[in-house]
Amino acid sequence: MTLLEVDGIHTSYGISDVLFDISVRVEAGESVGLLGRNGVGKSTTMRSIMGLTPPSQGSVSWKGQKVNGMPTSDIARLGVGFVPEDRRVFPDLTVWENLDIARRMHGDAEQWDEQRVYALFPELERFRDRRGGHLSGGQQQMLTIARSLMGNPELLLLDEPSEGLAPLVVDKLKEQIAALQAAGLSLVLAEQNLNFVLDLSDRVYILEKGEVKFEGTSDELRQSPELVSRYLSV
Amino acid sequence: MFDNPVLLFIQLMNGLSLGMNLFIISSGLTLILGVLRVLNFAHGAFFMLGGYVCFTLVGAFDMSPMGFWLAVIGSALALGALAWIIERLMLRHLYHRDHLYQLLFTYALVLLIGDLVKVGWGSSVLSVSFPPGLDGATNLGVAYYPSYRLLLCVIGVLVGLGLWYFVNRTRAGRLVRAARQDREMLESLGINVGRIYLWVFVAGSAIAGMGGALAAPAIALAPGMDAEIVVECFIIAIIGGLGSLGGAFLGSLILGLLNAFGVLLIPEFEIVLIYLMMVLVLLIRPWGLLGKPEAGYR
């Protein structure tokens, strides 16, 4: 079953066009990577899916139902979780308060609650009474992911989860995301960290200047160093 | 003057009761300012309208001993309903606009409600009598003090405690705090933030209506009374910190006490004192006593 179908969207901020005819598909249980350098439109693609910057053309469908034009909160309630790139924990709320406000039952799968989230991210339990703004970058990243899980999404959009984190923390985060995949969650990963994406994704899209330049499996991209050097090397 | 403890005590109580009445009104303004980021000029007009609605309802409930208290509840409900209509039909279309549009809109409400009051209740001064049993004075040991003003102090503290509990100890309050910090992120978590805005505006306005009704027996109802109170509420918000409920509580107490003791110390300058206080706070802590610097402030 196709969960998410992004079909030919164009998105602009005011008068500057950012996305030109982007199409992305995510099947149930699949993990999809969005690769590309800074500013190619990865974040805008996710914001367009969430309805935060709605596309001007094209369509976004969830399980066959058109969702572009719907309010962001309604799109989230269909089962789409969003972890934005700048983390955006609620700084004045404690860890457990951040989790509590996102709590919502959804779907038939085993539901996420505070305890299950702490089992995946034990560090958060130790700091459950600490304010979000007082956590380290890695802890904030875990908290934003954990917070999205509390809404029991079927698809999680992760924007640059490894950005600005120490290598050891990135490795741990990779294991935790893999555990989410094993639990049946579908993912869209926007990243500049190639290996992070290749290890976690079934298929990848390479974006440049707001267009899709390559679509294929992670293995295909591994075997095409020329694609990597053309679109991804800095 | 300072050798007269009874006088000092009475002025202290006057300051506290004025402060608590101001807090009831400014807490609603602060809640709306903190969450919706809308500076509601019409908050004083809501307060005034609450007083007038109370006047009419007290007349309608004349026979009942609980009449006044029913009128207070009725005023809160009436202003809440008015706020609901204003938010759904008009205000919500202005959240994404420049602040100037919101200011012009709420200022238009001030003019509209001011004229509505003149048409509905006339221009002469009206008064509401004290509720039964509260028209006397209570012996506080040091001195007798008007029972109704004493009750206003207690209600102010209860409103403060109630709001604190709601904001810090309930899930709805946590959502309100999150909406204050990052609207877009909260939407992305599946929360309908528009509904939070609506209910914060309704609740803040209902508290203003209740404040007007509660103040009615202690003050005279007259058109134009809204202008003074809204200026005082803004000063409280600035002194305490924009959007901070604790700051509004502190600011209200400071303003009430400054008023009461200013009259004793330098009566000819009393009216200037609160502005001097505001200037002082702005010089030392531009973001208010309990507020936080906005992002990017240096």
Structural key phrases:
heterodimer; A: 234 residues; alpha/beta; Rossmann fold; six-stranded mixed sheet; four-stranded antiparallel sheet; 10 helices; 35% helix; 28% strand; globular; B: 298 residues; mainly alpha; two-stranded antiparallel ribbon; 11 helices; 71% helix
Number of discrete domains of chain A: 1
Proportion of helical residues of chain A? 25-40%
Work out the strand percent of chain B: under 5%
What is the gyration radius of chain B calculated from CA atoms?
19 Å
CATH superfamily of chain A: P-loop containing nucleotide triphosphate hydrolases
**How many strand elements of chain A?**
10
Describe the structure.
The complex is a heterodimer of chains A (234) and B (298). Chain A is an alpha/beta fold. Chain A has a single domain (2-232), classed as P-loop containing nucleotide triphosphate hydrolases (Rossmann fold), CATH 3.40.50. Chain A has helices at residues 42-50, 72-77, 95-101, 114-120, 122-126, 137-149, 167-182, 194-200, 218-222, 225-232; strands at residues 2-13, 16-27, 31-35, 57-62, 65-66, 80-83, 155-159, 186-191, 203-208, 211-217. The radius of gyration of chain A is 17 Å and the shape is globular. A six-stranded mixed β-sheet of chain A has the order 6-7-8-3-9-10, sandwiched between helices. A four-stranded antiparallel β-sheet of chain A has the order 2-1-4-5, with helices on one face. In chain A, helix 3 runs parallel beside helix 6 (137-149). Chain A has ten helices and ten strands. Helix content of chain B is 71%, strand content 2%. Chain B has a two-stranded antiparallel ribbon with strand order 1-2. With 298 residues, chain B is an all-alpha fold. In chain B, helix 2 (43-60) runs parallel beside helix 4 (99-121). In chain B, a hairpin with a 4-residue loop joins strand 1 and strand 2 (144-146). The mean pLDDT of chain B is 92. Chain B starts with a helix and ends in a 14-residue tail after the last helix. At the A-B interface, helix 2 and helix 3 of A face helix 6 and helix 7 of B.
